[in-house]
Design a protein that fits this description.
Layout: H1 12-16, H2 22-32, H3 36-56, H4 63-71, H5 106-126, H6 131-152, E1 157-162, E2 168-174, E3 179-185, E4 194-202, E5 205-212, E6 216-219, E7 229-236, E8 249-252
Antiparallel strand pairs: 1-2, 2-3, 3-6, 4-5, 4-7, 7-8
Helix pairs in contact: 3-5, 5-6
Length: about 260
Amino acid sequence: MTHHATDAHTLAAAYALGALDDTESNDFATHLRDCEACRQEAAEFEATAARLAAAVAQPPPAVAKAQVLAAIDEVRQLPPRVPASASAPAPAPAPARGGVLTRRAVPLVLAASVAAAALGGIAVWQTQNGQGLKAQARQAQQQLDTISAVLAAPDARAVHGRAANGALTAVVSSDQQNKAVFTAAKLPAPGAGKTYQLWLDHDGTMRPAGLIDHDGTVILTGNPAGAGAVGLTLEPSGGSPQPTTDPLLLMPLPA
């Protein structure tokens, strides 16, 4: 690894997301044996990326398999691959760029993982003829664009938490985008007539920030600027103007 010892700590996220070359990855694995802080940080980034990607992934509709099988006979086959001549010189490997993937680059990698999971479902949606499905696809694309913009912002920051009901949560926020993204995994069903509601805590005043009733990722509504924390409560369907139950989660926003 070409980094100084003090720089190694900035590579936890890149290591967790598989964005280091083989030499850097092996050297950083050695570094992890003696660095508890980096071990924890790498695990948190890996979990965040997995939750964000899974949250926006869309299962293909049941009719997709039948449509694909029916279209196979009409698809032109690609020619066989011919191995390159042994005499042809192999392209020179790109020089290692140690130090390029730092915390500033991590949101871009996270955004890529989200996009890879989501666009597959959107592409399937767009093959359907129904206007309703196309509208859903456009809405999903807009949500993905907003999420990706937050994750790719150079000032994006992430925090992780666990709600009182066991749900694993993460918040990624960007002052530059003036938005925050909330992700939940292992969120128990809210129950009949109930929903989970998100809140932004502004100096003790809880302001509604959206609803979530299952595992997934949502853009927090309202203005996160000046908010100190994100709250989660169980509320009647449709939400409440003010919390009616004790918070299941009150997680400080990244500073």
